[in-house]
């Protein structure tokens, strides 16, 4: 719990999260990990391609159930990565990644609207 408070304080102090919009969970981080594990399992021939796509679809459906925008998803990812690493510096790295995904016109996040 100490890490959660530390990362939440860091997010507010640095203006990464508007007042009243602190993530209620870190599930975005968990979903990113799930997708990566599915991809790695496929690349190592532990699962078939259709199984990998099923894992990714479950992750996408879960994200749509929990979040209303890429911004909200991103804040959950920032907090989750910081808590997982237990380091506010790593939260800054996550913030930089999220900002790039939100602002770069070539980003997959900019290429696909939320809840299409």
How would you describe the overall organization of this protein?
With 116 residues, the protein is mostly helical. It has one domain. Helix content is 72%, strand content 0%. The chain has six helices and no strands. It has helices at 2-13, 27-43, 49-66, 70-85, 88-103, 108-111. α1 packs across α4 (70-85), α2 (27-43) packs antiparallel against α3 and α4 runs antiparallel to α5. The longest helix has 18 residues, at 49-66. Pfam families: DUF1266 (PF06889). This is DUF1266 domain-containing protein. InterPro entries: DUF1266. Residues 23-114 form the DUF1266 domain.
Please describe the topology of this protein.
Blueprint: H1 2-13, H2 27-43, H3 49-66, H4 70-85, H5 88-103, H6 108-111
Helix pairs in contact: 1-4, 2-3, 2-4, 4-5
């Amino acid at each position: 719990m100490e890490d959660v408070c530390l990362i939440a304080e860091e997010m507010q102090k640095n203006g990464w999260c508007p007042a009243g919009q602190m993530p209620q969970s870190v599930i975005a981080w968990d979903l990113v990990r799930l997708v990566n594990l599915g991809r790695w399992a496929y690349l190592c021939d532990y699962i078939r391609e259709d199984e990998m796509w099923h894992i990714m679809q479950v992750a996408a459906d879960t994200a749509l159930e929990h979040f209303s925008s890429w911004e909200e998803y991103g804040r959950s990812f920032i907090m989750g990565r910081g808590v997982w690493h237990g380091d506010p510096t790593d939260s800054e790295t996550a913030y930089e990644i999220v900002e790039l995904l939100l602002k770069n016109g070539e980003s997959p996040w900019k290429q696909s609207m939320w809840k299409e």
